[in-house]
Amino acid sequence: EKSRIIRAFSQSMCTPRRHVGANSGTFPMVVIRLQRGGANKRPFFHVVVADSRRAASGKFIERLGFYDPKAPQGREALRVNMERVKHWTGQGAQLSPTAKRLVKQFAKKAA
User: Strand pairing of 30-39 and 94-95?
Assistant: First the structure.
């Protein structure tokens, strides 16, 4: 029994691992998504560029804007740096569904 466990472990360590590269198209390495902040019942979101493997509230590469769903009338609720969004999407970053919706909404408002 012990030798079987050791053999299985040594085989898993010796087999070459296949790394998923940025060019394979299977897994986006960089994503543009929302990072939640704010207090309880007072959500506030930063639009950030982050490594997709990191936690949603973890380290990010760059902050592109913000979204305040509870902003009172007359105060800015959404701001996105469209130039940087274009830059990152050109580099292969994928937008999360919510980030895509907010970017589209901001582009329509700015135009």
Answer: parallel
How confident is the model over 37-55, as pLDDT tens digits? Answer: 999 999 999 999 999 888 8
Which portions of the chain are predicted below pLDDT 70? 1-27
Instruction: Give the C-alpha separation, 61 to 78, whole Å.
Output: 20
Three-class SS of residue 31?
strand
Task: Measure the N-to-C terminal CA separation of the chain; round to a whole number of Å.
Answer: 69
pTM above 0.70, yes or no: yes
Rounded CA gap, 91 and 22, in Å? Answer: 10
Q: What are phi and psi of 34, to 5 degrees?
A: -95, 140
